[in-house]
Amino acid sequence: MAKSEDITDQIQNDLLNCKICLSRFIQPKMLPCAHTYCQGCLEKMVRSDRKVQCPECREEFNLRGGVSKLKTNFHINSLMDIIKSKENEKMVCSWCATAGLSEISAVARCKTCLKCLCPPCKLTHGTANPRHVLEDLPGYIAGPCEAETKMQKMIYCQGHPGTLVDYLCNTCNSVICSSCSSHAHARHSKVSLANAGATARPTVMNLMERLKTDTQSLVQQEDDIVQAMEGMKATERSLMSMIESTLAEVINNLIKQGDTIKDTLSSYVREQEELYKVARDDIQLKIKKAKDTREFSQGVLGSSKMREIVCLRSVMEEQIDGLQAPRVPDDKKTRPSLTVNESLKSMLSHSNLFSLTFGEESAAKALAAPAKSKPRKSPEKSPLAYTPLPQPRQTAWNLHCFDTELDGDEYDPKLTGVSVSDDGIIVVADEDNSLLKCFTNYGHLTATISLPDDDDKPCSVAIFDDTIACSSGNQLYMLDMDGTMQKKLFLRGSESVYPLAAYQDEYVAVSEGSMCSLSLYNINGQVVDRVKPCGYEGGRFLFLAVNSDERFIVTDCGKKCILIFDRDGYVLTTCDQVSMNRVVQAINPYSICTDKDDNIMVTEWNRILLFWPSGDFREELLTVANGLHKPRVITVDNCNNLVVTQGNGCITVYQLDLS
C-alpha cells in the first residue's frame, strides 16, 4: 500500500501543478475543454485575434471576454487548501522548542541542518551560518504572524530560557525575570510590568494609529500601481493597434500602386498585341496572294500563250507593288520599361517608420524610499533600459552598383585608382589585370586602355584637362582619353605606390610617401611646385585630395592620421581620432576625396567617415549596412555622387545629400 506522503506528492505533481509553468497553480482557470492552467500562463498564450489554443488537446477557443472571465477551478483550489493545511501542520521552530519556549510556527527550513525556523530564528541562523541554504515553507505568507512570533519570543527571559519576564530594567532597556532582577540587575532601576505597560500603552496606541495611516498609504500606492499597470497595458494595446493599422495602410498603398502599374502595363501590352495581330494578318494575306500569283504565273508560262504572257507582266508588277509590308511598330520605341524609385526604396529599407519614446522616469523610481533610510545618490540608469536613439537624417542613397570584371580578365579585379571625367566616364585602374577600364555611370563598358609598356601595371589615376594621369611604379604616364601616350615621366623617390589627385585643370598632385611631400605636374609634364608641410616628419603619405581652396588633404598611413595643409606648407589641422556616441576611437584612414562643398570623405576597413572642410569629424557616412564590402578608393563625380570601388571588384554609386 502506498504511503500517505507518496499519495500527497502524486496529487501535487499530477493535479496541482500547471502544465505550462510546471509550478503550483496560481488562480487556476478552466478552458471549455476542461483543462486547467494558471490565469497568468493563459494570458501569455492569447494571440492578437483573442484566441487561445489548449496546449494539451490543441483545441482553439475565442476569449473575447479575456482569461479572467473563464471559470475558476474550485476543486483545484480546495485540494490546494487541504495540502497547505497538511504542510503547515505541526511545523514549529526547532530552536525555540529546544530552548523550552512555547511552540512558534515555523516559516522556513534550513536545508543544510534540516531545522525549522521562525522569523527571528531564521534571521539569526542565516546571519550566523551564511553558507547554509534556507527555504521558505510552502504556504507561508509574511504577515501579522511575524510580529506575533517576535513578541512571543521576547516575553521569555533571554538569560533564563523558559522563564517569563516580570520586570522592565530601565538601565538596560530590557525585560527580565525575577531571578535576573535579584542578581544580575540588582542595582539597576527597575519597574514592574504593570507600571511599564501602563506607561507604554499610549505610545503603542500612537504607533497603531501610525500603522493604520501607513497601511492606508500603502493600499493607495498599491491601487496606484495597479492603475498604472492597467494604463500601461492599455497604452500597449493602443500602440500595437496603431502600428498594425499603419503597416496595413502602408502595405495596402504599396500593393495598390503595384496593382495600378500592373493593370496599366497589361492594358498597354494588350493594345500593342492588337496592333501586331493586325499587321500579322495583313502580312499573311499578302503571303497568300503572292503564292497564288506565282502558281498562276507558272501555269501561264507553261501554256506558251503569248497573249497571256504579255498581259501577265503588268498583272505581276501590280501584285508585287501591293506586297509592300505594312508598317510595324518599332519594338525598341514601344517596349515598356520600369523605373524603380531607388531613393524611396532605400529610404524604406534603412529608415525607421516608427519612433518609440518612453516616459522620463521608470517604475522603479516611482516607489518611495523606505522610512529612516539614509540619503543616497540618484541611481544610475539600468544598462538594460532602452533609450531610443534619435533618428538621423539620411545622407546617402545607393543609386546603382556594377561589376568591373570583364570576360577577358585573367585575375579578379584589384581596383587601386578611380577618377571621373567631365562627361561622367568612370576610369578605374585594375592593377592585377594591367588595365584602365572606362565605364559609364551605370556600368556600361566604353573602353579599356593598356599602358604603353606591357610590364607596367596601373596604380593610381586622375583626370584633368581631358588627360588621364596614371602612375605605375615610379613612372607617371600622361594619356589621351583614348589611351594615346602624351608623356612619360619618372617620379622622385623609390616608393611602391604614388597616389594621384587633380586640381581642376591646372595640375596633378603626386603623393611621395615617406618623403612626406607632394610634387605638382602640369599637363606638359613640368613640375610646377613641390609642397612639404612645415615641420612634419616621420610619417608616410598615402592618398590625397585637393579642395576648391587648394588645400591638400592627405592620409598618413604611418601616423594613422589625416593631415590638412595649404600650398605654402602651413599645417592647418591633423586628426587621428573621432568621437562617436561619446566613445573616442582611433582611425586608420585609407583613401580620401572631397565633394563640391569641400566636405571630406575617408575610407576605413569597413566604413566611410565624413568630415567637415575644417577637418572636424561629422558622422559615420556609410557602413556595411549600406552595402559596403571593404571600400578601397573613392571619388566624387560632377553630380556630387560618391563613387566607391570595393574589395569584391564592384563599383557602387551613392547619391549624397550633405546639406
Q: Would you mind describing this structure in some detail?
A:
- With 659 residues, this protein is an alpha+beta fold.
- 32% of the residues lie in helices and 25% in strands.
- Helix 8 runs antiparallel to helix 9.
- The chain is flat, with a radius of gyration of 46 Å.
What's the end-to-end separation, in Å? 87 Å
* Beta-strand content: 25-35%
Number of helices: 12
Please tell me the overall pLDDT. Answer: 82
Q: Identify the overall geometry.
A: flat
- Given helix and strand content, the structural type is alpha+beta
Any idea what the radius of gyration is?
A: 46 Å
- Specify the helix fraction band: 25-40%
Tags for this model:
12 helices, four-stranded antiparallel sheet, alpha+beta, 659 residues
What is the topology?
Elements: H1 4-14, E1 28-30, E2 36-38, H2 39-45, E3 51-53, E4 60-62, E5 71-72, H3 74-88, H4 94-98, E6 108-110, E7 116-117, H5 119-128, E8 134-136, H6 144-154, E9 167-169, E10 174-176, H7 178-182, E11 190-192, H8 193-303, H9 306-321, H10 331-334, H11 342-350, H12 363-366, E12 396-403, E13 415-420, E14 426-430, E15 435-439, E16 445-449, E17 460-464, E18 467-472, E19 475-480, E20 485-490, E21 500-503, E22 507-511, E23 518-521, E24 527-531, E25 541-546, E26 552-556, E27 561-565, E28 571-575, E29 577-580, E30 583-586, E31 592-594, E32 600-603, E33 608-611, E34 617-622, E35 631-636, E36 641-646, E37 650-656
Antiparallel strand pairs: 1-2, 1-5, 3-4, 6-7, 6-8, 9-10, 9-11, 12-37, 13-14, 14-15, 15-16, 17-18, 18-19, 19-20, 21-22, 22-23, 23-24, 25-26, 26-27, 27-28, 29-30, 31-32, 32-33, 33-34, 35-36, 36-37
Helix pairs in contact: 8-9
